Input
Amino acid sequence: MVNIKKALVCGAGGFIGSHLVKRLKKEGYWVRGVDLKNPDFGSSVADEFIIGDLREQSVCRGVLNEPFDEVYQLAADMGGAGYIFTGEHDADVMHNSASINLNIVDIANKHKVGKIFYSSSACIYPAYNQEDPNNPKCSENSVYPATPDSEYGWEKLFSERLYLSYNRNYDLQIRIARFHNIFGPEGTWKGGKEKAPAALCRKVAEAQDGGEIEIWGDGGQTRSFLYIDECLEGIRRLMDSNFTGPVNIGSDEMVTINQLAEMVMGIANKKLTLKYVTGPLGVRGRNSDNTLIKEKLKWAPSELLQNGLEKTYAWIKEEVSKKL
Output
């Protein structure tokens, strides 16, 4: 009899989580998904999908009521700069995400799951190392002295230490990745929680040729953006490895927001004016340092940003057309 691996995906209704469920099913896993909501753009392909609030211990006990080979903890209160950096959601972001992690790691340990993956974030890196847009420092060992750029980043750093503590004290097998701006089709593209690639794709799709779109700040801030398929590959390679992490999972193809806007306009074949407005910005510069992932996993993301943007723009353009 074939031994089918069982996986639990927490946050399976979210962007990365819903894609991860699809990836695990293709690999032959039996998958249980759990989230506050179903995926926004179609039903989940999970074998079981449970609507539940992981801030509640009773819900966590219910979904972790049997042995799992792997648990993927992606559930969090999060969003793009327009959500994270305004300061208006700090208490909810910290309380909600910390509650989920405190519940999941403790119950997973009691049930002796095989491995648990925790999705951390590049937002944990010190703001003082990201002031130069052309030379940000985001190596994994640069996290201390700690001054994350947001309360979201502080919670992620706390939860990293939480999982590492369970690894040291209880030998719970964990894997930690720090995501750098994951994007792609079926991600949030409107409503305030969208990230820069989706926001710009939406603005360009909605604009008339010759019109204008708004850019927060002066557009000189730098970032890197990782296409969802590469993110999933990194997650699976990390889980199959013997490396605990934390490790960056991100692209090292750094661009300014102005350059990102120009790329999207090129894909759309539109000439638009950039109008600079005040808005939440985060750090001045950020890029994934992929030295450690190459060393430990003998792999690093390599797909060009252009390719991912083409797929994402096509999907968002179609979504925008549905609203017209």
About this structure: The mean pLDDT is 93.
